[in-house]
Amino acid sequence: MGSVKDYFSNLGSGLASLLKGMQVTGKEFVTPKITEEYPDNRDNLPVADRFRAVLTLKYDDQGNHKCIACGTCERVCPNSTISLDIKTVDTWDGKKKKKLDKYHYDLGSCTFCQLCVTNCPTDALEFSNDFEQAVFTRGKLVKLLNYLPEKEEPQPTPEEIARMKAEKEAKIAAAKAAAEAKKAAAGAAPAAKSAESPADTAKAAAPANDAAAKALAAAAGDPVKEAKIRAALEKAAALKAQRQKEN
Ligand code: SF4
Ligand code: SF4
C-alpha cells in the first residue's frame, strides 16, 4: 500500500516542478531582451558615437576635406599606420603649394590611440564608429582616406586680383615713404644748419614730403595703411626733431 502513497506523492512533486519550470519560462518570455540579435538588427544597432572603429578624413557637403598635407599625423603615429603621398602644385599667383595626393591608412596596425586626430592642426580627421571592418586579407585593411576626386585649385575673381595688387602697391609705397622720411630726417639736421633761409629748409624737406604724399595717395581708402604711413612719418619727424635739438 505504501507504493500507492509514494506514487501520488511523486506525481504531486512532479507537477509542482513542472509548474515551477513553466513559471520561469513565462517570466523570461515577457522580460525585455538584453542580448543583441546581430546581424539581424544591423540597421538600428546602437553603437556609441565615440567608439573608435576606423580613421576617416572629414569631407564637407561640397566634397572638400581640410587636410593641408602638413604630415603631422604621419609623424605622431606610433605605429607608422599612416603614410602620405604629397605633391606640389602651382597656385594662380605663381607660388608653390603642398597638396595631399594619397592618404594611406592601415587599419590592421592602428591602435586607435587617436594621436593623429588630436594633433591635426586643421581638424581634418575623425574616427568613424562603423565597426564592420572584417575582410579576408590584410591588404584590404590598407585604406585610401582621400577617396573623392581632387578639386581644382581655386582661382581668384578679377576683383580679388585687383584688390591684392592694390594692397601690394600700397605696401611698397608705404615702405618707400618710410625709408625716404627716415633718409630725409637723417639729412635734415645738416641741411637745417647750413640753410640760411626758410626757403632752403623747405627745399631740403621737399623729397620726403613728395614721397609721403605719394604713399598716402596709394593707400587712400585703406585706413589701416594710412595709419601705418602716418605713424612712420611721425616717427621720422620725431627723430628729426630730436637730432635738431641735440645739434
Ligand atoms: S595632420 Fe591633418 S592636415 Fe596634417 S597631414 Fe594629417 S590630416 Fe592632413
Ligand atoms: S589612432 Fe594612433 S595608431 Fe591609429 S593612425 Fe592614429 S596615431 Fe596611428
Characterization of this structure:
This protein is an alpha+beta fold. The protein folds into two domains: 54-144, Alpha-Beta Plaits; 158-246. The chain contains six helices and five strands, in the order αβαββαββααα. The protein has helices at residues 2-30, 72-76, 115-119, 158-194, 198-218, 223-246; strands spanning 54-57, 82-90, 96-106, 125-128, 142-144. The strands form two sheets. The chain has a three-stranded antiparallel sheet with strand order 2-3-5, with no helix packed on it. The protein has a two-stranded antiparallel ribbon with strand order 1-4. Strand 2 (82-90) and strand 3 form a beta hairpin. Helix 4 (158-194) runs antiparallel to helix 5 and helix 4 (158-194) runs parallel beside helix 6 (223-246). The longest helix is centred in the C-terminal third of the chain and has 37 residues, at 158-194. It is elongated and about 145 Å long. It starts with a helix and ends with a helix. The mean pLDDT is 85. The structure holds iron/sulfur cluster (2 copies). One iron/sulfur cluster binds at residues 55, 76-79, 81-82, 110-116.
Please state the second-level CATH architecture of the largest domain: 2-Layer Sandwich
Main sheet characteristics = 3 strands, antiparallel
Rg estimate, integer Å: 40 Å
Question: Which range best describes the helical content: under 10%, 10-25%, 25-40%, 40-55%, 55-70% or over 70%?
Answer: 40-55%
Name the strands of the widest sheet in spatial order.
Answer: 2-3-5
Average of the residue pLDDT scores = 85
Order of helices and strands: HEHEEHEEHHH
**N→C terminal distance:** 144 Å
Q: Number of helical runs?
A: 6
